[in-house]
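Hi C.,

You asked whether I'd gotten around to modeling the 175-residue construct. I have! Everything is below, sequence then structure, no commentary in between.
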Amino acid sequence: MTRQGMKRIASLIGALFIIYMGVALVSESVPLFGRYQHYVIVSGSMEPSIDVNDIVIIDTRADFAEGDIIAFETSVEGEEVRVVHYLDASEEVDGETVYFTRSEAGGRDDWEIAAEDIIGVHRMQIPRLGVMFNFFSSAIGRVVFIMNVIGIIAIVKILKTPSKKLSRRDAHVQR
């Protein structure tokens, strides 16, 4: 394979990786890297540890213990939601382990959680980046993202195109 062919393949792989990361960052349905999920915090229940609009990175394969910050699915007013709270305690209820959570403010939450409802353990957070994620998750944000990608590709193509400088003799002939 020629050097030019190798450059094209590397460029294509790089472009596909950038597109994948862009989609992963603006969509909760695409995992960042295998075992990690990300969520934007939308309520102040975990402040000051985790603020509204922070992005939390959740390890979906980690073992959890009391005191860990976990992400889990539960029903709030008939709607399935994902919540990030402390794992407060576990108890045996009718032969099954039930987990209880609490917010930063303290006090046990009302819901009971089964092990299969726990998504994973909080590993890190990125402060205030959720504002951008929420924007790019909206219809107008996706259009802006696509237009930016197209604009960057166009600029790169223009900059890579060799310019044809005319010599004085060539400029005189073309007149």
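If it helps when you're writing up: The mean pLDDT is 85.

Thanks,
B.
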